[in-house]
Amino acid sequence: MPMLRKVLSTHVGQPTSDGAGVRLIRVFGGPGIERFDPFLMLDEFGSVNPDDYIAGFPPHPHRGFETVTYMLEGRMRHEDHMGNVGLLGSGGVQWMTAARGVIHSEMPEQEEGEMRGFQLWLNLPAKAKLGDASYRDIPPADIPRLQTAQGVTVVVIAGEFDDGEVQQTGVVQRPDTEPLYLDLHLPAGASVSPSVPEGHRPLLYVYEGSVTVSGHADSIGAGQLVRLSEQGALSLTSTAGCRVLLIAGKPLNEPIVQYGPFVMNTREEIEQAMRDFHANRLTA
């Protein structure tokens, strides 16, 4: 019998608002983020009420990490100081590396209908925190999507999906943190066993239905995140069907100091980021 990954902890997100009043669920982020290294935050947003999202995220700064926005439904326009303009639509991904500094906005391109998706913050190693910023807008047609023999739909955003029968490289590959980002849709009664590199820290977030992790008695329901151990095989089963994000990355094991939109390794670096921002040289 192969060793199975263990459920180390279970977390439930908290309602909050960000930007100019966008209502969302902060799945994790804030105190204790070292447990999720190299990931810093995961937000879930979803509403059919325009009042919950219409104000969007006016121009704001970032330094020291990457943001990954995955849109399930809706349209959001990105603009940044580098001159990039992108329309993030249903099924698309925006991958932005803030590094030394980005000032950008994310504003809804709709006044009605559902706005639903996720934003993940991925840390950068100390050596890359003051590197060049970049932005990539990835339309759904460019994101690999496959179906396993059991009918499980897999959207491969980053890393590589491998269940021993099917292999598919994702649209994004990143050094140092080597992220794996999969959106798994399990029909009723289906199972899937995605490979996760040894030593990577896996997180599982159920956003519809419920799923069972092999070796763990309790099922994981919608709105729950579990942190898994860093060694062993992983097998997921859903009795009634589910949709779940599997996110894994190689821990950086570096100090994390965060102040709002700035994530560095020391307090002095945070203070420098604030000085740079107020002096209009964050992106210089």
Automatic annotation (TrEMBL):
Belongs to the pirin family. Residues 23-122 form the Pirin N-terminal domain. The lineage of its organism: Bacteria, Pseudomonadati, Pseudomonadota, Gammaproteobacteria, Pseudomonadales. This is Pirin family protein. Gene3D superfamilies: Jelly Rolls. Residues 181-282 form the Pirin C-terminal domain. InterPro entries: Pirin (IPR012093), Pirin_C_dom (IPR008778), Pirin_N_dom (IPR003829), RmlC-like_jellyroll (IPR014710), RmlC_Cupin_sf (IPR011051). Pfam families: Pirin (PF02678), Pirin_C (PF05726).
